[in-house]
Design brief:
Blueprint: H1 3-26, H2 33-40, H3 44-50, H4 54-70, H5 83-98, H6 101-116, H7 118-131, H8 133-144, H9 153-168, H10 170-175, H11 182-200
């Protein structure tokens, strides 16, 4: 990669980080491309060279949030391993992602903007729903193997993820609480597993 390309990439990253900061501080509607350019330390023309509109810049922020979600490792069902051990790995990966400051920043921006303009949220929510499919597929496979009760897999997946998010996502997003310590993450996961397996394991 040449030096000018690296500079372009750095400017693009600076614009995105500036946009996240401005959207968080002022919301989508009040934030201007002028202010984003000033915060990023680049010209307004440079911002528009990378992002033709504020909507496209916001879409890129949502794409980065989506990229963080999809970076979560896939875990296929293993008939030879204990259910608890397999689920623990998946849930700990989710909690670690939800404890990442960049992920939380992006989630705050996306949620704040979409509350005021629900149509912006529709595609993001649909794509996030698709992302949850990995746990749903795992549950369906465990059911087919006769190890989980035949409850609706989507419901069961949403149920256990809701338990995690009530401790490790919504309090941080809505009230600014600190992310969970490693010890607290483990406590939340083990408690969620106790409840889930007591309800659903055959």
């Amino acid at each position: 990669m040449t030096a000018p390309q690296r500079l372009t990439d750095r400017k693009r990253a600076a614009i995105i980080q500036a946009a996240i900061a401005e959207f968080r501080a002022n919301g989508f509607d009040i934030t201007s491309m002028d202010k984003i350019a000033a915060t990023a330390g680049v010209s307004k023309r440079t911002v528009y060279n990378h992002f033709p509109s504020k909507e496209e810049l916001f879409a890129e922020i949502l794409n980065q949030l989506w990229a963080r979600l999809t970076a979560e490792p896939e875990t296929s069902y293993r008939p030879d391993l204990p259910l608890r051990e397999q689920m623990r790995r998946m849930l700990m990966a989710k909690l670690q992602m939800m404890s990442d400051d960049n992920f939380l920043d992006l989630a705050r921006v996306a949620i704040a903007a979409t509350i005021h303009s629900p149509e912006r949220a529709q595609n993001m929510v649909a794509r996030m729903g698709e992302r949850e499919e990995s746990l749903t597929l795992w549950i369906r496979a465990a059911q087919a193997d006769g190890r989980l009760k035949p409850v609706e897999p989507e419901f069961a997946a949403q149920q256990i993820q809701g338990m995690l998010k009530s401790f490790a996502f919504w309090p941080q997003i809505s009230m600014g609480l600190p992310t969970l310590s490693a010890e607290r993450q483990s406590t939340v996961v083990e408690s969620a597993l106790d409840m889930f397996l007591a309800c659903h394991q055959v």
